[in-house]
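Lab notebook: predicted structure, single chain.

Context: the supervisor wants predicted structures on file for every construct in the current expression panel, including those that have not yet been purified. This is the next one on the list. No modifications to the sequence; it matches the entry in the shared construct table.
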Amino acid sequence: MENTKRSAKYNALWLTSAAVFMAMNVAVSSFGIPVPGGHFYLCDVIICTAAILLDPLAAFMVGGVGSFLGDLFFYPAPMFVSLVTHGLQAVVISLCAHKLFRHKPVWGAIVGVLLGSVIMVVGYTLGRTFVYSTWEYAVIKLPYEILQAGIGAVAGVLLTYRCGLKKLFETKILKIRTA
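Prediction complete. Output recorded below exactly as produced.
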């Protein structure tokens, strides 16, 4: 019974949903707005939205693996930092959105994106210090990391709940998945 339940959970629709969000993450990672110390990316919008909608494993694939691939294709130096940081960020957001405040999922998602934002900022600051061997370089980019995390968190929650993406996802995707 458990094997049937598990295989039904990870079906083609689950994989396709995760793959579409992952492709969106890679696509958004392909361009950035130049800022002092690097570039400003909008991939956190995709990561936060996907993490709120998807389970933790799919969220890790979108956030961690998607960011890793985006870096691998376009700027490979921080690709392992992206794998760990965005992967952990996505898993925490997904766990909070699905397990915390079950009767008020918006609050779980808000707590999740706030924790995810902290993980992203701290992870990239420490990662840049390690990859580029200088604390100063990481500090130059810090305000833009905070801005990127904040925009991703706010936009992710707004897209999911205010724009009705969660309701659409549940009625169209999850309904097909359970049928």
